[in-house]
Specification:
Number of strands: 8
Helix content: 40-55%
Strand order of the largest sheet: 2-1-5-6
Largest sheet: 4 strands, parallel
Number of helices: 10
Radius of gyration: 29 Å
Oligomer: single chain
Distance between the termini: 32 Å
CATH architecture of the largest domain: 3-Layer(aba) Sandwich
CATH class of the largest domain: Alpha Beta
Strand content: 5-15%
Amino acid sequence: MSKNLVIVESPAKAKTIEKFLGKDFKVESSFGHIADLPTKELGVNVEGDFKPKYLVSSDKKAVVKKLKELASKAETVWLASDEDREGEAIAWHLAETLKLDKEKTKRIVFHEITKSAIQRAIENPRTIDYNLVDAQQARRVLDRIVGYELSPVLWRKVKGGLSAGRVQSVSVRLIVEREREIQAFKPEVFFRVDAEFINGDKQSFKAKLSKNFSTVQEAQAFLQANIEASYIIGDLEKKPAKKSPAPPFTTSTLQQEASRKLGFSVSRTMTAAQRLYEAGYITYMRTDSVNLSDEARFSAKNEIEKAYGAKYSKPRNYTSKAKGAQEAHEAIRPTEFSRHGVEV
């Protein structure tokens, strides 16, 4: 029996991590959350301290039984779920449900699934962050109270099958308010004159008249009056164009670019990113940070210089402009810059 039991939330993640650890480590998956609020009751003590009532999910009882057996035989249990609210809550539920001994339980986190990152995490364990756990519980309780209480009202008053939620109901209101503004907008019709000019060298360029016309008749009258006229370029100014590279991806910018360039939905993008992360190809894909580690910048610099030369290598330090950005993780980036493509 392995001396060390490592528990993660994903079987794909478990498979990748196990490749980096020796025979003294056994890596198992909890398959996500093992406990949640009951489905047939509110599950929150609203008359008291709003304490939630958790039950082991019916489809996780066999998983919990197996993990309990393995944990009882291991010298050390390493809780290695993601370092975010949900991941911390999973670690806490595992510790509580499996009744893990605090002396032999360690919490480890990493932002990329690579051998060096896993080794660093094991060398620097911590305890469960109860601030993150409380944040997850507060959100879960609010979700339940709002959804559980308001959804039945929608079924009775509007239409069956509708749902209300802490986030979705506010979002729907914002969308409705914006749509009302659009419908109330009174458009103003105007006409614009564009022209293509050809010089003596048969070179052409397009230009736009700075003035707009309120009627098509005015625009046509202007054209008729000036169609045979000769034009002189009064001034020509040339400016060198320069475009700075885009910052590294955050979750939102990754989703935007995948939609714009590939036509991906948000769910398709995040599913693909999850698979890449769990296979060890990219860093954690839920982040609001554009920061890169010194190690990542150094690796990228070396790869660029090797492929294109030193003149194309100008390392930059990016900072987030978003107010309230947590920046708990690095930006989304490849774990190995020498790897130019993968299949998953």
